[in-house]
């Protein structure tokens, strides 16, 4: 087993039961989605109420898709977010990180090894599969990345694996890729936007008991 515990982010929190499970079973990050086309979208007022319940060392992550400054300001005025997770260009991500003074995570869609970035100018990169051409929203879209693309890949920056993960496959994903952290949303749901506490418990346990190969 690896001597370093795998970090776990549970994204798309919309209700108290899912949030309570994240805290009970030891997630490192919880994510709130501020993108209206997502079935996991919540508005700033809803996120504020949930974020206020977060205790311990869990960090609160806000997910935004190509946001302008006004959107970010409106949410941050109400919700105490620790990290901004962005779907945007690297240049825009740097602007946002500088302007808003919060760590930024940037999504990097990957289809082949040539897509793997050589450097990271923000706090962390999320490595996930490229969305289908007909997708209406970015992100993993419950697709699984070809983990073999990451075998032996050891970048000098912080990164996280996302896309198509669930309690049954996350252990193998960590073992194959050596991912220092993993991100899940639909893979721990009982219905779109509704988290399963049992699935959250199993996902976190399996992510952290995998032997990295």
- Percent of residues in helices comes to 25-40%
Structural class: alpha/beta
| Large-scale geometry | globular
Output the helix-strand order: EHEHEHEHEEEHEEEH
Distance between the termini: 9 Å
Total of DSSP H or I helical runs spanning 4+ residues: 6
State mean pLDDT (0 to 100 scale).
Answer: 91
Unreliable stretches covering 5 or more consecutive residues? none
Query: What is the total tally of β strands?
Result: 10
Cross-sheet strand order for the largest sheet? 1-2-3-4-5-6-7-8
What's the story with the biggest beta sheet?
8 strands, parallel, barrel
Strand content: 15-25%
- Radius of gyration from CA coordinates: 16 Å
Folded structure, characterized:
This protein has 213 residues and is an alpha/beta fold. 27% of the residues lie in helices and 22% in strands. The chain is built from six helices and ten strands. The chain has helices at residues 16-25, 44-51, 69-76, 90-100, 170-177, 197-208; strands at 7-10, 29-33, 59-65, 83-87, 104-110, 124-129, 159-162, 181-184, 189-191, 194-195. The strands form two sheets. Strands 1-2-3-4-5-6-7-8 form an eight-stranded parallel beta barrel. α1 runs parallel beside α6 and α5 (170-177) packs parallel to α6. It is globular, with a radius of gyration of 16 Å. The protein starts with 6 loop residues before the first strand and ends in a 5-residue tail after the last helix. The mean pLDDT is 91.
């Amino acid at each position: 087993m690896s001597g370093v515990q795998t970090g776990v982010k549970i994204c798309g929190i919309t209700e108290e039961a899912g949030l309570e499970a994240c805290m009970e079973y030891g997630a490192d990050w919880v994510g709130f989605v501020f993108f209206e086309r997502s079935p996991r979208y919540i508005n700033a007022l809803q996120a504020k109420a949930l974020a206020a319940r977060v205790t311990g060392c869990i960090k609160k992550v806000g997910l935004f898709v190509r946001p302008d400054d006004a959107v970010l300001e409106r949410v941050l005025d109400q919700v105490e977010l620790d990290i901004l997770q962005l779907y945007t260009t690297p240049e825009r991500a740097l602007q946002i990180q500088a302007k808003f003074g919060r760590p930024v995570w940037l999504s990097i869609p990957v289809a082949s090894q040539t897509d793997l970035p050589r450097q990271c100018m923000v706090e962390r990169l999320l490595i996930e599969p490229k969305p289908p051409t007909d997708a209406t929203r970015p992100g993993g879209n419950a697709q699984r990345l070809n983990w073999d693309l990451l075998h032996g890949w050891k970048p000098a920056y912080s990164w996280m694996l996302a896309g198509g993960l669930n309690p049954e496959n996350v252990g193998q994903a960590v073992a194959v890729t050596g991912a220092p952290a993993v991100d899940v949303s639909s893979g721990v749901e009982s219905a779109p936007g509704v988290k399963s506490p049992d699935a959250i418990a199993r996902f976190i346990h399996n992510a952290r008991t995998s032997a990295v190969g």
